[in-house]
Amino acid sequence: MVSPEKNEIKEILDDPSLLLNGDRRALAQAITLIESSRDDHRDVAEGLLNKIMPNTGESIRVGISGPPGVGKSTFIEAFGQVVIGHGKKISVLAVDPSSSRSGGSILGDRTRMPELSRSKDAFIRPSPSGMALGGVARRTREAMLLCEAAGFEVIFIETVGVGQSEHAVSDMVDMFILLTQPGGGDDLQGIKRGVVELADLVVVTKSDGELEKVSLQTQADYAAGLSLLRDKSTFWSPKVLRCSAQSGVGIEMIWEEIKSFKEKSHKTGDLEAKRRHQSVAWMWREVQSMSILRLKNEAKLARLSEELEQAVGQGLIEPGTAARKILNTFFQGQL
Ligand SMILES: Nc1nc2c(ncn2[C@@H]2O[C@H](COP(=O)(O)OP(=O)(O)OP(=O)(O)O)[C@@H](O)[C@H]2O)c(=O)[nH]1
Ligand SMILES: [Mg+2]
Question: Atom 32, ligand 1: which residue's CA is nearest?
Fold first, then answer.
């Protein structure tokens, strides 16, 4: 992982106003800082995040997912330009469970999003590499806050996954969009159902040329499928739209839907309630991952842990009992 240089960190902390004024270089540096795994960087990163908290929360946070090749990058490229055309700034982050892979990752996407990467109103950032999904998701959430502080009003968090990463993303966004291919109606029966249930909006991509007719059928299939699912909220029933990033058809309508989602959820108070709930859940998630790290690194526990690992492995002791032993030993005399 690239560590931010000392002088760069100093720059950000001395003058967070650069970041708050939307300076993209300062934003990139701040994100590199929060991605760093060094303890001293972590302290500084937390200081920065707390400082900018009052400047966060103004954006609409949108998760976007879909299988490889469905047209995510092409869609974001087209959609981003529409949003920028409306005078908004868009940032695109990624939670990619396999960000080391080259082809489809957002890293290779700068070439697939040529216009957007050039625009001063867009900020594109690949998924941090070398971390497990939990780590990637945590840092992406923090990167999202930094983007908000830098004045980005639309935040897209892209993921391609088989379920787990979609859940991680849906836990940090306001709205979740699922892209699907023309002819992809089978998803509703199969393993994708869980992901479909997360969606606030389903978009059938590539609705152009020969695929247009098929996409109409897919739209109808999804609409029928979704009508059988229970709505996630009282203010919103998920819709199925079609678009073509190539012709531009339907892109504007998706922007309208996103705006409508934000307005409605804000009006009913659901948006704020969801964000409060998400923040608290993230706090406990942090507690969970920090505790495990702490316990695993605790010298006092090293021997006991090793013994218990062996005993559990040999089936001599039940894992739950062993876990309780570790915790009890750790907390003895600590409170
Ligand atoms: N006809 C048509 N083709 C499209 C459209 N959008 C994307 N494609 C094509 O679909 C293929 C995949 O598009 P990408 O945008 O790279 O898809 P992706 O979902 O980002 O793929 P990964 O990053 O690999 O997960 C490319 O060959 C695109 O040219 C569209 O609106 N119409
Ligand atoms: Mg892509």
Answer: 206
Where are the strands (E) in the chain, listed by range? Answer: 60-65, 90-94, 122-124, 154-159, 175-180, 201-204, 239-242
Task: Please give the distance, rounded to the nearest whole angstrom, from the Cα atom of residue 71 to the centre of ligand 1.
Answer: 3
Cβ 215 under 6 angstroms from ligand 1: no
Distance in angstroms (rounded) separating the CA atoms of residues 329 and 306: 14
Three-class DSSP category at 253: helix
* 150 residue type, one letter: A
pLDDT digits (tens, 9 = 90+) for 205-240: 999 999 999 999 999 989 988 888 777 788 999 999
Identify the structural domains of the chain with CATH numbers, from first to last.
1-55 (1.20.5.170), 56-267 (3.40.50.300), 280-331 (no CATH)
- Residue 111 sits at φ, ψ, to 5 deg, of -80, -25
Classify the C-alpha dihedral 214-220-223-229 as positive or negative.
negative
Max CA separation in the chain (angstroms): 71
Return d(Cα 250, Cα 245) in angstroms, integer.
8
Structure token pair of residue 229: 């699912």
Question: Is the pTM for the entire model greater than 0.85?
Answer: yes
245 lines ligand 1 (CB under 6 A): yes
Closest CA to 114 of 124, 104, 129, 102: 124
Tell me which residue has its CA closest to atom 2 in ligand 1: 206
Ligand 1 near 205 CB (within 6 A): yes
